Amino acid sequence: MKSVNFDAKKFFYILIGLLVLGGIATGYGLAWANKQLADRAQKISLLNLQADELDKKIINAHKLQAELSSNQDLLTTASEVLPRTKNPENIVGELISIAAKLGIELESINFVGGSTSANSPISQSDKVDDIPGVYSIGISTGFSTSYEKLLKLLEDLENNKRRFEITDIDITPIENDSGAIASYVTQLTILTYVRP
Predict the structure, then answer these.
(1) Are 194 and 85 a contacting pair, CB within 8 Å?
(2) For residue 74, what are the contacts with CB-CB under 8 A and spacing of at least 6?
(3) C-alpha to C-alpha distance for 46 and 20, rounded to whole angstroms
(4) More confident residue, 180 or 116
(5) What's the N-to-C CA distance of the chain in angstroms?
(6) What is the DSSP string of the chain?
(7) Which residues share a beta bridge with 187?
(8) Could you give the CA distance from residue 49 to residue 87 in angstroms, rounded to a whole number?
(9) In whole angstroms, what is the distance from residue 128 CA to residue 125 CA?
(10) Angle, to 10 degrees, between the axis of helix 147-159 and the axis of helix 88-101?
(11) Phi-psi group of 124: left, alpha or beta (phi > 0 → left; psi -120 to 50 → alpha; rest → beta)
């Protein structure tokens, strides 16, 4: 009977040992599963961030595509409206011609700004940032005329096919001996656009 008791005691210790080992194995198993879940959660979080970045890039690509489409319309319009020229002197000649039709003599004509680089396709021009293939040329001119002729000149410049853009105007009235205004000394800064 003693030996049976010993076997029961031995079995009890074995059972306790197995329970302890099972508990330890379960703890390690839970720790391993928790680490696996944490790693997967981190990967999923990273994939979500990448998906968000891709969504932002797709939205940005759609915006750029829409902008390109609108710029394409702008390029087409620029090609239809802007004359081709590589000679700023032609622009000056056109400006003199418009003024001469009104009896206005341009007393001074100067190019304002502009690149004098040999790489520039048009001398005295600046590249327009928003419209590829289009260049601006700035011109400063001075003259004396009546107020009515000045208004007509401004209207003719605005309606000209070249589309002169007046960026600055300075008008000084000149009085005659009796104190009445005889004429106006005018300084204009004009910007026009060309394609090479």
Answers:
(1) yes
(2) 130, 131
(3) 39
(4) 180
(5) 116
(6) -HHHHHHHHHHHHHHHHHHHHHHHHHHHHHHHHHHHHHHHHHHHHHHHHHHHHHHHHHHHHHHHHHHHHHHHHHHHHHHHHSPB-S-HHHHHHHHHHHHHHTTPPP-EEEEES-B--TTSSSTTBEE-TTSTT-EEEEEEEEEEE-HHHHHHHHHHHHHSTT--EEEEEEEEEEE-TTSSEEEEEEEEEEEEEEB-
(7) 142, 170
(8) 55
(9) 9
(10) 140
(11) left
Give the C-alpha separation, 95 to 52, whole Å: 55
Contacts of 128 (CB under 8 A, 6+ apart): 134, 135, 136, 193
Q: Which two tokens stand for residue 49?
A: 């961030």
pLDDT in tens, 129-172: 777 777 888 889 999 999 899 999 988 888 877 668 888 999 99
Sequence letter at residue 74 = L
Per residue in 44-55, pLDDT (tens digit) is 888 888 888 888
